[in-house]
Amino acid sequence: MEKILCPQCKGVSIKNGFQNNKQRYKCKFCNHRFQLEYTYNAYEPTTNTLIKNLLVEGCGVRSISRIIGISTTTVLSRMLKISKGIKIPYFNKLGCKFEVDELWSFIGNKDNFTWITYAIERETKHIIDFYVGRKTKETIRPLINKILLLQPTKIYTDRLNIYPSIIPKEIHKRFQYSTNKIERMNLTLRTHIKRLSRKTICFSKNKIYLEAHLRIYFWG
């Protein structure tokens, strides 16, 4: 008799009753319960990976819902679940150069602007962190403080008047073309993330969905 292996840990599984007239199994090692075939596509083991890949490739929530055959509510809940399992990669290289910039988006409706402020390491384009919200000294300062812990040699920004008051003058640089790399990344973000496109009917209904999508795109 062929052994049934757990899709999560590959451990040997045993029969564990029925659901909708379909045999269920339970892993002896991790206690994960599963079926070999599912009626609803959301329960397929590959669904989360497919959702993540489609989000990165520029598909909106409704597009993913149509492609996979699951509800938009399920797509949103899975997106939150996937993002919560993502940890920000630890960047510990000292003495690097960084670029900081902002790009706008909408939340709730097209009259409600919000800003995404984020930082990249200039050479590797590694995303250090990001913040979604208003452009104020209080909201941007934690991001800048995180960069300052890395003892940067230079921090390049645009001419937003907030930066000179929170970045030491000797390492702060802002001149024409100083943020070329991050500006190019802004274009990539607007191309790959449908809710960030300039001319679109797609936008985030809630801040948590925008943050979740960015976490998946940056570090997923």
Automatic annotation (TrEMBL):
Spell out where the chain crosses the membrane: none
- One protein family per Pfam: DDE_Tnp_IS1
Q: Is Cell wall biogenesis/degradation among this UniProt entry's keywords?
A: no
Q: Which domain of life is it from?
A: Bacteria
Function per UniProt = Absolutely required for transposition of IS1.
Record keywords: DNA recombination, Transposition
Name of the protein described by the UniProt record: IS1 family transposase
Among InterPro entries, the record links this protein to: Transposase_27 (IPR005063), Transposase_27_IS1 (IPR051354)
The family classification in the record reads: Belongs to the transposase 27 family.
